[in-house]
Specification:
Order of helices and strands: EEEHEHHEHEEEEHEH
CATH superfamily: Spore Coat Polysaccharide Biosynthesis Protein SpsA, Chain A
CATH topology: Spore Coat Polysaccharide Biosynthesis Protein SpsA, Chain A
GO molecular function, one term: N-acylneuraminate cytidylyltransferase activity
Shape: globular
Number of domains: 1
Keywords: Nucleotidyltransferase, Transferase
Protein name: N-acetylneuraminate cytidylyltransferase
Strand order of the largest sheet: 4-1-5-9-6-10
Structural class: alpha/beta
Radius of gyration: 19 Å
CATH class: Alpha Beta
EC number: 2.7.7.43
Distance between the termini: 27 Å
Organism: Nonlabens tegetincola
């Protein structure tokens, strides 16, 4: 079984009630729910939330929320990994055994069903062992060329050493965009996600990769949704 997990905590400091705030007239989380429903049945989709308000908004779409997340998993310190394990264990108590988890964060409204289907196809048909597939974009802030750290003497040094003098000559570096994660549950049961080594990428374009964290991100996503076709 593939469980599609949509994590939606009620609290948000940067943008209050971010997951259900209206974006172009629609609750933000609805963009992800709609994309997921074009690829999976409702029985395979689980919104994990601690908020009664979010539950009401989700269930107004016709999607049933199977449980309310416990408060211990609703704090700022709660990790995605703990939320994934909670969902897996919930379904296991119901006699449903999950083989793979696809995590879709509501903060990626320009990730659509085409991305989801392509990522899943890549994951399921990979010719090597995969512990996790993660969506990425090519980063604008290449550590070989643009990023620097301050050394003990207070001088800036490149984050990654390279003799290249042009951006075109440095290695391509990928940035997690937060849109799609697919986890092998057998691997999850054996080690922490931070210890995964068999990780493959699913590359997305910069527009589809927009991840909402700040008010500026919100305005940019609204603009893109109004002016581009989400295909």
């Amino acid at each position: 079984m593939i469980l599609v997990l949509i994590p939606a905590r009620g609290g948000s400091k940067g943008i209050p009630k971010k997951n259900i705030k209206l974006m172009n007239g629609k609750p933000l989380i609805n963009y992800t729910i709609e994309a997921a429903r074009k690829c999976f049945s409702d029985d395979d989709i689980c919104v994990s939330t601690d908020s009664d308000e979010i539950i009401d908004i989700v269930e107004n779409t016709g999607l049933k929320v199977p449980f309310k997340r416990p408060d211990v998993l609703a704090s700022d310190s709660a990790t995605s990994e703990s939320i994934i394990h909670h969902a897996i264990e919930f379904y296991q108590t119901k006699g449903v055994f999950v083989d793979h988890v696809m995590l879709l964060q509501p903060t990626s409204p320009l990730r659509n069903e085409h991305h989801i289907k392509a990522a899943l196809d890549q994951y399921l048909n990979c010719d090597k062992v995969v512990e996790m597939l993660v969506s990425v974009k090519i980063t604008d802030a290449n550590p070989y060329y643009l990023l620097a750290e301050e050394d003990d003497a207070g001088y800036l040094v490149k984050s990654k050493i390279s003799n290249a003098t042009r951006r075109q000559d440095v290695p391509t570096v990928y940035e997690y965009n937060g849109a799609i994660y697919i986890y092998n549950v057998a691997a999850l049961k054996n080690k922490s996600i931070k210890d995964f080594t068999k990780v493959v990428k699913f590359e997305m374009d910069a527009t589809s990769s927009v991840d909402i964290d700040t008010p500026l991100d919100w305005k940019w996503a609204e603009y893109l949704l109004r002016t581009t076709k989400n295909e």
